[in-house]
Amino acid sequence: MYSIKTERSWRELQVDYIQQKKRQTTAVRIRQIATFLCLGVAAVALLWFGAQTVSKLGERLFSQKPDKVESEPALPKLLVKSEVKALVQNIDILNSKTDIFFADGPSWTYTIHTQLDTRLQAKLIRTLNYLKTLDRGKPELIGMVAMDGSTGFIKAMAGFNPGNPATNPCTSARYPAASIFKIVTASAAVEKLNYTATTPLYFNGRKYTLYKRQLTNQKTKYTNRVTLETAFSESINPVFGKLGQLALGKAVLNNFAEKFGFNQNPDTDFDFPVPHFEATDSNYHLAELGCGFNRDTLISPVFAVTMVSAMVNKGQSLVPRLVDRISNSDENEIYKSTKEIYKTPISPKTAATMKKLMKKTISGGTARKSFRGYSRDKVLSNLLIGGKTGSLSNREHTVKYDWFTGFGQQKTTKETLIVAVVVGHGKYIGTRACVHAKNMLKTYFSAPKTKKNLLTATSAVPE
To answer: Are 393 and 123 a contacting pair, CB within 8 Å?
Structure first.
């Protein structure tokens, strides 16, 4: 019998060992290859991601940067006229020696530029200082205003009122208009009744009285015949009393007073008290109003120049203005004034007739003595000068108000200065308003004019 061999031989064991070692070696190599492949894939992925990152960083670093948008600085707030008026009320314009003023605002210090004529202002201040030294003839009050007739700019403002030093006598509307109101009455007669400078008019009695018996159209051998030009230039009360009562009446007087600006005030950049006019149903009162022989019609010197501006601007009156422009601390212009028409009370034809009447006042009327020799004067002879005078005492007869308002117009350049002067004489009559006005015109037009000033004056004259 054969025995069964259960143990493996050495050779079989050796073959199994060698095969097992081969299998282990193959497995190790497979793991190594797999690891290498994984590491390679990971490296490739890292390299790709890194390249993308570097590219984006490069684009950010080296690409052209957009310009930085800088915010525009905030524009300064522009001022309106009401704000300008509030600023001007806080500075002292009267008797100023400068044409530039400063005012503090909430955020800025404002520089206020005017067109005050410092040369004329200095002359007026010297006059006032002299008047204050007088014992006899010293005025109780005086107000003097000058305005450019083409632009409306205030060129001078000077005066004093010891009885009420807080009041500006140039803007105060507390003075009886007196015969200055004849400007309104004459304008109404020319405009509504078609009167001309040569229209014949009649009166009885004296020139400067106003009795009821003078207010009739009855003619006698003692009746005086004059033209409208003569009646205006010589300020004949009965003629204008009859115009107010008989020819024009309450409605027309009221209408023309309103057209000229009574009981109103223009939109100015400085204080402008309202002039007063009121007509009743009394016939005699209408006569008083027509010739200015009453203490109820009240005006200021500033309003007087506004009235006259209609005569030199073909019937259109100007809004008076003090401020030319305003700048802030950074020298930015925040306000610039413009020329404004206030009223059109009369037609150009009427304005031409009124200028003729006013010129007659200077050459042969109530201002003749004060302007004597002006046609031979080196300065005044180059001007066309016209005006209107007026005088009336207060109710207590302690002050006599003496008026002049008128214009001087350069014959060649047409540059025009409108002036108004009111003097309150006390016990003694001192220098009259006409004389002050004459000196104002002479001082202003004697100043040498630069080429720029001449061009401005010429271009500003209305066509």
So the answer is: no
The mean pLDDT value for 437-448 works out to 95
Contact 182, 406 (CB under 8 A): no
> Is the distance from CB of 202 to CB of 224 less than 8 angstroms?
yes
DSSP bridge partners of 385: 408
> Torsion angle of alpha carbons 364, 368, 372, 378, nearest 10°?
-80
Q: What is the mean pLDDT of residues 177-200?
A: 98
Q: Which two tokens stand for residue 225?
A: 């015949």
Q: Where are the domains of the chain?
A: 81-460
Give the pTM.
Answer: 0.82
Within 8 A by CB and 6+ apart from 347, the residues are 191, 315
* Token pair belonging to 373: 């020799």
Pairing of β 383-393 and β 341-343:
unpaired
The residue ranges of DSSP E strands in 304-438, in sequence order, are 317-318, 323-327, 333-336, 341-343, 383-393, 400-410, 416-425
- According to DSSP, residue 381 is labeled G
pLDDT digits (tens, 9 = 90+) for 365-391: 999 999 999 999 999 999 999 999 999
Dist. CA 193–CA 70, nearest whole Å = 69
What superfamily would CATH give domain 81-460? Answer: DD-peptidase/beta-lactamase superfamily (3.40.710.10)
C-beta neighbour count of 335 within 10 angstroms: 21
C-alpha span between 242 and 248 (Å, rounded): 9
Q: Which tokens hold the place of 437?
A: 């006005």
What number of other Cβ atoms are within 10 A of residue 322's Cβ? 24
Q: How far apart are CA 391 and CA 65, in angstroms?
A: 81
Q: Are 117 and 444 in contact (CB under 8 A)?
A: yes
Q: What is the pLDDT of residues 313-345, one digit of tens each?
A: 999 999 999 999 999 988 899 999 999 999 999
Instruction: For helices 301-312 and 182-193, give the axis angle rounded to 10 degrees.
Output: 30
Closest-CA residue to 457 (of 85, 19, 117): 117
Query: Interior CA angle at 126 toward 125 and 131, to 5°?
Result: 95
Specify which residues 277 forms β-bridges with: none
- 3-state DSSP call for residue 406? strand
Distance CA 304, CA 407 (A): 11
Question: Which residues does 95 contact at the CB level (< 8 Å), separation at least 6?
Answer: 121, 124, 125, 128, 157, 158, 159, 160
Q: Which H or E run contains 330?
A: none
